[in-house]
Design brief:
The protein has 426 residues and is of the alpha/beta class. It contains 15 helices and 13 strands. The strands form 2 sheets. It has an 8-stranded mixed β-sheet with strand order 3-2-1-4-5-6-7-8, sandwiched between helices. A 5-stranded parallel β-sheet has the order 10-9-11-12-13, covered by helices on one side.
């Protein structure tokens, strides 16, 4: 039997999901952001995850009216799960979404959570809220499941329909129903987890594993700089071994890799285990921005360049290349550290929204064409727009085409670097 589907939260995760279902049937797309709803109705997705044609060809009733959720009997929750300033899970969006759903919950409805949480959160945190606000009993009047999101912003190859979907439910009947619903749109198929906690744990370790691998590369980069060895060249050489894992150093931000491990460490500490390895990796990755800034300052001192009053241009401000997503960008760490040294900073980005950058970080983004020549350039985010310009862009970005270029992700060809430029790489 076809389900009446509603998607709660229409961001980077929820919108692609809603569009996939909306191409098969009529669904409800709910978000508390009225401006977001207005834009989606006009065919505009500011996250750039969904094309206008796909939006227009999907049968989605976009709404900010929570009462519409009462018409659904299969509700998918895809709201953000950030962390606090103290690196603790912030379940506020998830709890508020659960309250909204509970107030409009119909008997027999299945609620599936996709937001990243620690093992146990769906049943321990969300279910009580649903029950309290709906006055219904979970397992009798309504049911829950968990299906972790695997959206990779900016990735046009690994999309919602082409990534295997992990699904789970509170009992076998609910699990089979959830699997059937997702299988109707996910071409890659579904994997049935044995329990909700298993599915929650699977999600949180996916990004924890990536975080730890990247942290190793970042620590190696620190070591190799002290040894005056080029990290990119070391990785290129080591990569010729068949089982060497292809990871590279870099800034680890965004809403997943830089956040999810804290959900697992929080739960681990709750049950009496101190997760030393995971937290060590997090500490290493959280310090990369400061390391880049201080390394640049040291290089400037070595070259007898003034620090206070000097100008440094930062290319790219989003958390990763070719997306407008500014959530938890670690480029801000570079900016703040350089400001401590009295350096004048000018930041530009080919994708980011200037209003959002100022609202979230008090950063005034400068249009690329309006940048003033600087003493050094940190190529922080390798957007395609910059890569297409290549080395020639530094003729204008640097004073007289001379100075320091810090290529954080080693995307520029080292062999083509002009003699007048001192190249640094993480």
């Amino acid at each position: 039997m076809q389900k009446n589907i509603a998607v709660v939260g229409l961001g980077y995760v929820g919108l692609p999901l809603a569009v996939a279902f909306g191409k098969k049937q009529n669904i409800i797309g709910f978000d508390i952001n009225d401006q977001r709803i207005k834009e989606l109705k006009e065919g505009l997705d500011r996250t750039e995850e969904v094309e206008r044609e796909d939006l227009e060809s999907s049968s989605i009733e976009f709404t900010s009216s929570s009462s519409k959720l009462g018409e659904a009997n299969f509700i998918i929750v895809s709201v953000p799960t950030p962390i606090t300033e103290n690196k603790q899970p912030d379940l506020t969006p998830l709890v508020k979404a659960s309250e909204t759903i509970g107030k409009n919950l119909s008997k027999g409805t299945i609620v599936v959570y996709e937001s990243t949480v620690y093992p146990g959160a769906t049943e321990e945190e969300c279910v009580p809220v649903l029950e309290a606000t709906s006055q219904l009993k979970c397992g009798k009047d309504f049911f829950v499941g968990y299906s972790p999101e695997r959206i990779n912003p900016g990735d046009k190859e690994h999309t919602f329909t082409t990534i295997t979907k992990v699904v789970s439910g509170q009992n076998e009947e609910v699990l089979n129903t959830i699997a059937e619903v997702y299988a109707s749109v996910v071409e890659a198929g579904v994997h049935k987890a044995s329990s909700i906690k298993v599915a929650e744990a699977a999600k949180v370790i996916e990004n924890t594993q990536r975080d730890l691998n990247i942290s190793l590369m970042n620590e190696l980069a620190v070591i190799f700089e002290k040894l005056n060895i080029d990290t990119a060249e070391v990785l290129e050489a080591a990569g010729t071994k068949w089982n060497f894992l292809n990871f590279s150093p870099g800034l680890v931000g965004g809403h997943c890799i830089g956040v999810d491990p804290y959900y697992l460490t929080y739960k681990a500490q709750k049950v009496g285990h101190h997760p030393e390895v995971i937290l060590a990796g997090r500490k290493t990755n959280d310090n990369v921005g400061n390391f880049i800034a201080t390394s640049l300052v040291k290089k400037m001192i070595q070259k007898n360049m003034p620090i206070q009053g000097s100008t440094v241009t930062i290319l790219g401000f989003t958390f990763k290349d070719n997306v407008p997503d500014l959530r938890n960008t670690k480029v801000i760490d570079i900016v703040r550290e350089l400001e401590e040294f009295g350096v004048n900073i000018q930041v530009t980005d080919a994708y980011a929204d200037s209003g959002e950058a100022y609202k979230e970080y008090r950063i005034n983004l400068i249009n690329y064409e309006e940048l003033q020549p600087s003493d050094a350039v940190i190529f922080a985010v390798p957007h395609q727009a910059y890569l297409e310009k290549g080395w020639s862009m530094f003729d204008q970005l640097l004073k007289h085409g001379k100075g320091i270029v810090y290529d954080v992700k080693s995307k520029l060809d080292k062999k083509e670097c002009a003699a007048s430029i001192s190249l640094m790489r993480l």
